[in-house]
Write a structure and sequence with these properties.
Elements: H1 8-20, H2 22-30, E1 41-46, E2 51-56, E3 59-60, H3 62-66, H4 71-74, E4 78-83, E5 92-95, H5 96-112, E6 120-124, H6 129-141, E7 144-147, H7 154-164, E8 168-172, E9 175-177, E10 180-182, H8 184-192, E11 200-204, E12 218-220, H9 221-225, E13 237-238, E14 242-248, E15 256-261, H10 262-277, E16 284-287, H11 294-306, E17 310-314, H12 325-333, E18 337-340, H13 342-349, H14 354-357, E19 366-370, H15 376-386, E20 393-396, E21 430-433, E22 439-440, E23 445-451, E24 461-462, H16 466-474, E25 481-489, E26 495-500, E27 504-507, E28 510-513, H17 514-522, E29 527-537, E30 541-550, H18 558-571, E31 580-584, H19 597-605, H20 621-629
Parallel strand pairs: 4-17, 6-7, 6-8, 7-14, 8-11, 11-12, 16-17, 16-18, 18-19, 19-20, 30-31
Antiparallel strand pairs: 1-2, 3-13, 4-5, 9-10, 14-15, 15-24, 21-22, 21-23, 23-25, 25-26, 27-28, 29-30
Helix pairs in contact: 1-2, 5-6, 7-8, 10-11, 13-15
The structure holds 5'-O-[(S)-ethoxy(hydroxy)phosphoryl]adenosine.
5'-O-[(S)-ethoxy(hydroxy)phosphoryl]adenosine (WTA) binds near residues 293 and 421.
Length: about 625
């Protein structure tokens, strides 16, 4: 088991050691896991191709480290504690022993249905234990999981299945989310009309809805489980074999399949989980994310299970049946560590404080935040009303591509500073670069955030497009991984993330490419062109502001707005719906045809006093019109 850091001095010495001798540092931590064969070389890398290999030649199966190795000591300990959407339905405690059996059984179902090592298996499921079990079952047989968030549309699901050429889809008849039910099976059916690679779809019964099962393709999970036993040998995998693909948005219209590999991801997720949350053996830990996002992969499933923790999985939403639900669950399960997103904090902050004060939150020891910059008001509310000024808040900065938390306080060990992610974890070497690509040394400086040395859980490639991986992350600043984030380093060397510097916006902690949303809007038959920018939004952090040029003669009214929203829901999903749509006759463009988003951003923010130089625009008069029509 990985040992955690216990004092600030120890953090400093570990950090120094990790920079002076990264290979020795990570090899020591990697030794604490179960390997079927020791690796030959701890690290081989260059950021030019890029090529990154950790623990090369090592053989293992990550599920033996998540499950089998705990059985003797923690077989009867709760591994997954599942809290349903409806508070009157019972919570479910799954012990390590039961989880091991259920993962093995599910793995046998996958095998029976043609699943094998190297296959890509898509998961489109609600937040039920079977989702976590399915993820681990894929890893058990050496298949690569690609979890698609259950809020995505049929089109988005089909694109992701096709990109990775998945042969199996795991889904359910539907899911519960607050007062709503979502018919996942019918969305999946629509997607599969355009997915020729899928051979089998295995369907969980969750909401008992009427579904159509396609003969020869669709099977019920419960029928399949009844056919197999609970023993399944773990497939022997190479440390650098892919573990999963997870799609995320970039600055082009096409989502990127971020690919992680087994060995390095395993070492880093347990290491970061233990240290950041200062996890102790009997803690009950709750991360409110969805497994459809990287936070759920690393800090609901892998990190906690590798550490032998009790990880809570929640099916519902923070405001159902009322705005006290999170706090009710904290009291009910005596949660010790609670990890959520700023957008959820802001939404609950806007509700009556009585929803908080009704519950006993004294079990809490550590609070966490992830996904977007946390504003100071939300930080203070979280600290005062949830932590009762007694729980360190770990503001964890990281990305789908980084696999694990990169810059964050270690709870109670390293100093806090509101709105700052503070200091890098050992093994992480951040740097700031200026517009010319030169590293900015010293403190009290700003720049673009890069990482200059590999860490075990970093992405290895983008599925099927290594060149795009190189271009996106390794070509902007030679020899460095570029995060796409702007950042400040204060006088004490603490880091504060200021937000994206590329064409990506962050809405409620979800990454969205502006081009992706624009492409969806442009599918409306009367839209000629559109431009999307983010603007400050009280709850979501950033809202989506859309400027649309319509065909002449098309009514520019609320009905058209509704149609545009429906298009976006259809093509991406409800999370990408613009908050505001302004119809315009033109967009501010340079003579070379590039949209000047800076101007659109200013107008969307309601700050039109200083739009900067507009003289280089093709048609400066369009700016006046947009200003007048601003919403
Ligand atoms: C942003 C989520 C400020 C950042 C784990 C990053 C943050 C993007 C923080 C990655 C934070 C994430 N403070 N900004 N603590 N955490 N971000 O891939 O812009 O969904 O690049 O990973 O979210 O989003 P992703």
């Amino acid at each position: 088991m990985i040992q955690k850091i216990n004092s600030f001095e120890e953090y400093q010495s570990e950090y120094a050691k990790s920079v002076a001798n990264p290979e020795e540092f990570w090899a020591e931590h990697a030794q604490t896991f179960q390997w079927k064969k020791q690796w030959d070389k701890t690290l081989e890398w260059n950021f030019e191709e890029p090529k990154i290999e950790w623990f090369k030649g090592g053989k293992l199966n990550i599920t033996e480290n998540c499950l089998d190795r705990h059985l003797e000591e923690r077989g009867d300990k709760t591994a997954i504690l599942w809290e349903p959407n409806d508070p009157s339905e019972s919570a479910i405690h799954i012990t390590y022993k039961e989880l091991h059996e259920r993962v093995c059984q599910f793995a046998n179902v996958l095998k029976n249905n043609g699943g094998k090592k190297g296959d890509r298996i898509c998961l489109y499921m609600p937040m039920v234990p079977e989702l976590a079990i399915a993820v681990l079952a894929c890893a058990r047989i050496g298949a690569i999981h690609s979890v698609v968030f259950a809020g995505f549309s049929a089109k988005a699901l089909a694109d992701r299945i096709n990109d990775a050429k998945c042969n199996i889809l795991l889904t359910s008849d539907g899911g519960f989310r607050g007062a709503k039910t979502i018919n996942l099976k019918s969305i999946a059916d629509e997607a599969l009309e355009n997915c020729s690679s899928i051979q089998k779809s295995i369907v969980l019964k969750r909401i008992n809805s009427e579904v159509t099962m396609k003969e020869g393709r669709d099977v019920w999970l419960h029928d399949e489980l009844a056919k197999v036993d609970v023993n399944c040998k773990a497939e022997e995998m190479d440390a650098e074999d892919p573990l999963f693909i997870l799609y995320t948005s970039g600055s082009t219209g096409q989502p990127k399949g971020v690919q992680h590999t087994i060995g390095g991801y395993m070492v880093y997720t347990e290491y970061s989980f233990r240290n950041v949350f200062q996890y102790e053996e009997n803690d009950v830990y709750w991360c409110t994310a969805d497994i459809g996002w990287v936070t759920g992969h690393s800090y609901i499933v892998y990190g906690p299970l590798l550490a032998g923790a009790t990880t809570v999985m929640f099916e519902g939403v923070p405001t159902y049946p009322d705005a006290g639900r999170f706090w009710e669950v904290v009291e009910k399960h005596k949660i010790n560590a609670f990890y959520t997103a700023p957008t959820a904090i802001r939404a609950l902050q806007a509700c009556d404080i009585g929803f908080v004060n009704k519950y006993d939150l004294s079990s809490l020891k550590v609070l966490g935040s992830v996904g977007e910059p946390i504003n100071v008001e939300a930080w203070e509310w979280y600290n005062k009303h949830i932590g009762k000024n007694n729980c360190p808040i770990v503001d964890t900065w990281w990305q789908t591509e980084t696999g694990g938390i990169m810059i964050s306080p270690l709870a109670g060990i390293t100093p806090l500073k509101p709105t700052y992610a503070t200091l890098p974890l050992p093994g992480i070497q951040p740097c700031l670069v200026d517009a010319d690509g030169n590293e900015t040394e010293g403190n009290d400086v700003v720049g673009n955030l890069c990482i200059k040395f590999p860490w075990p859980s970093m992405l290895r490639t983008l599925w099927g497009d290594h060149e795009r991986c190189r271009q996106t992350y390794f070509a902007t600043y030679s020899g460095k991984y570029f995060t796409g984030d702007g950042c400040k380093r204060d006088e004490n060397g603490m880091y504060r993330i200021t937000g994206r510097v590329d064409d990506v916006i962050n809405v409620s902690g979800h990454r969205m490419g502006t081009a992706e949303v624009e492409n969806a809007i442009n599918e409306h038959e009367a839209v000629i062109e559109s431009a999307i920018v983010g603007y400050p939004h009280d709850i979501k952090g950033q809202g989506i502001y859309a400027y649309c040029i319509m065909e002449t003669g098309k009514a520019v009214d609320d009905k058209t707005r509704t149609e545009i929203l429906a298009k976006v829901t259809d093509i991406i999903g409800p999370i990408a719906k613009p908050d505001k749509i302004q119809f315009v006759s033109g967009l501010p463009k340079t003579r070379s045809g590039k949209i000047m988003r800076r101007i659109l951003r200013k107008i969307a923010e309601g700050d039109t006093s200083n739009l900067g130089d507009t003289s280089t625009l093709l048609d400066p008069s369009v700016v006046e019109e947009i200003k007048i029509g601003a919403l």
